[in-house]
Structures are given as structure tokens and as C-alpha cells.
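Minimal example, chain plus uridine-5'-diphosphate.
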Amino acid sequence: MDVVLRERNIEEYRTIIGNEVDEIKKLAEPLKGKKVLHVNATAYGGGVAEILHNLVPLMRSVGLDARWRVIEAPDEFFNVTKKFHNTLQGADIEISEEEWNLYEEVCRKNAELIQDEELFVIHDPQPAALRKFVDLNDRKWIWRCHIDLSTPNMKVWQRFSQYLEGYDRLVFHLEEYFPQGWKERSIAFPPSIDPLSEKNRDLDEDTIRKTLERLEIDPERPLITVVSRFDPWKDLFSAIDVYRLVKKEIPEVQLAVVSAMATDDPEGWFFFEKVLRYAGTDEDIKFCTNLKGVGNKEVNAIQRATTVALHTATREGFGLVISEALYKRVPVVARPVGGVKIQVKHGENGYLAWEREDLAGYVVKLIRDEELRRKMGEKGRQTVVENFIITVHLKNYLKLFSDLLR
Ligand code: UDP
């Protein structure tokens, strides 16, 4: 199924990146009219879909004939690919012969729908085997991987990696995620946030105030915010512990737990319940979920009203939420894992620490020092504009395309 794309114009970004818009147009000039097909597994939910909704229209706006297709697959297929997702990051799970067969069969069927393209960008493990079933060897093939492949379950990797043989380039968020033995064919560039999306664009004070009112957050008191899915790796228990340590020093502090609840994720419901119990009866912990109508605009408003953003994840591929906060000039206190390390510069736009006591110490320091927050906030904005906004992402893709189509 081809995804219906919104309109975007690269000129809209001139207020944010100035003349870099011209540099992008120049880079795109030789690629005008090139047929580029992005393929992934879902049009909604998750970072990849979010990025493609913004990025593909921008590619079109600079002249590429870019399209985005979502593979068609039954539910059982996604049970198999969830196993790929986990085993490729190291989990010790068996994948049966029937599961491998189902995976190949779905990819083979989807491959039949592929026609005349010049360049393919295949995202993540779900559609990776498409390449094997498309007999267009003179075209260019990119596999864009959003997970860490440095320590996979070797049994699964040995078989899965055969699907990658026909790709010209593998793209990861970080070099440390490259799989062993594939370094020559791999490159790294980070994902991005879109400053013009509903999640990130400027909001007026009135909208922010009304959102806080509706969620019973007091705008006059300091606010720590954690934005994350209800997922064990995000370690929301530690976030609550950190908040409690801070509260001993600053009794008026509040904690917003902004967390989306997917109705089709039973694991998420259980986890939600555990976190709620852990939070107990403290009314200064505000659960802001989509069950209360917290969507992109509300997340935006809460992030903008935040004094310090907190991120306690113990494993993180990239962590778009970090860039979302930094872009809004909010300093971030986080654990030094995965993609967090390249976004938070310790002592510049936030602080990195592992232990809860240390994280709490940094949060207290920031809440007490408005001038420090202002300075770090400016730096954070700069970090994102220079490295993690969609136009930088677009440039990285354009360079890669030019390199391959040369
Ligand atoms: N998000 C959201 N509402 C929530 C929780 C998360 O919109 O209640 C968004 C968040 O703003 C970000 C994305 O979901 O854009 C999460 O991406 P990230 O890379 O931080 O983590 P992931 O969930 O992919 O592990």
C-alpha cells in the first residue's frame, strides 16, 4: 500500500536553517526526477513512521520522485518480525522453520509489487528480504536499520544476514551499532525530529497554559517531565525514584509521566499498572497518557512547560524524545546509553549520570539555577538544529543517494 503523503515545502525551513536551504537544493539538483521508493512495515506508530511522514514529502519538495510503501502482511508475520527485532539485538529465542518460511513468503509476495525504481530504501528487518526476491540488480539498494546490530543472537544473524547480501549500503544511527564483518558497507547518520511538526512547532502561551490546566499541572511550580512508552527498558521506576529524591530537597516539584498507551500492546497495559502502583497516591505525579487525550500537541505543550526533562532508559537506540526536549530549550538529565550519548553533552546542554542519586543531584541543580537552565537550553537548541533536525537528515540521504547513483 502506498502511503498518502502530506505537502511540505523546503522553503518553510528557511526561518530555522537560513541559507542551508540553498545548499540542500544544490545537493538535490543532480537527483531531480530520480525514482526512490521507501519501504517499511507500518504507516502509524513508532519513530520510523513519524520520520517517513515528514521526510518523504521533503524529498519530493526538492525534486526527487520519492514514494513510501508499507508492506502487506498478516498479523502472524509481525509476531515473527518482533522475534527478529529481539534476537537481532541479542535475545536468546528460537525462530522455527515455519516462521522463517512465513517471513520469506510475505517478502516474496510484496516483492512482486515492486516495479520500476532507481533506488530503494528498505527500513528495518520486516521488509529486509524483499531484496532477495527482486531481480533488479542494476538498481541501488539501501537498508536503513533503526536498531543496534553489534551483539546479535548469532544463530539468527547468520541466517538473517544472508538477506542483506544484495544491499549496496547499510545505514545505522551510530557506528557502534554496525554488525561485525559489515563495516565496509555500513555508514552511520542519526534520525531526526521535524521542527514544523505538531509535536515540535511553536505554541502560544495560551495553548500551553490551557493544556497544563486540563492535565492539572501547576504552571507556577517546577516540573520534571519524562516522555516514554510504557516499556521496561525505559525504567520509569527509576524516574519516579529520582523525582522522590528531588522532592526531598524541593517539596513543590511535580513529575509529568507522558506515556502513550497502545491498545494493541497487552504488555504495555501490565507495565502501566505496575508504574501506577509504584507511584502510589502522590498527586504531584501526573500521568499524561493518550487515554486522557494527550496527543502530539499536548506532548509539545508539556515539553515546553518543563523545567528539566528526565530520561532514565537503560537502553536506547536513539531517543527522539531527547532531541524534542533540547529543541524546545529544555535541559535534559539522562543516563549515558546508546543514542542519548550523542545528544546530551554533559555540562553543556544537560547532564549524564547512571545512579539515581546523581541524576537527582543534577535535576536539583538545574531547578535551582534559572540562568544555568537558560544557557543550557540555548545550547540544546543549537545541538539539535546543527545535528538532529530533519534537514540534516535529508542532506545525509541526498549525499548517500548521489554517492550511489554517481
Ligand atoms: N511519544 C508520544 N507520546 C507519548 C510517548 C512518546 O508522542 O506518550 C513519542 C515521543 O514524543 C517520540 C516517540 O514517541 O517522538 C518515541 O521515540 P523515542 O525514539 O524516544 O523512543 P521509542 O519509543 O522509539 O523507543
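The longest helix spans residues 370-387. The mean pLDDT is 94.
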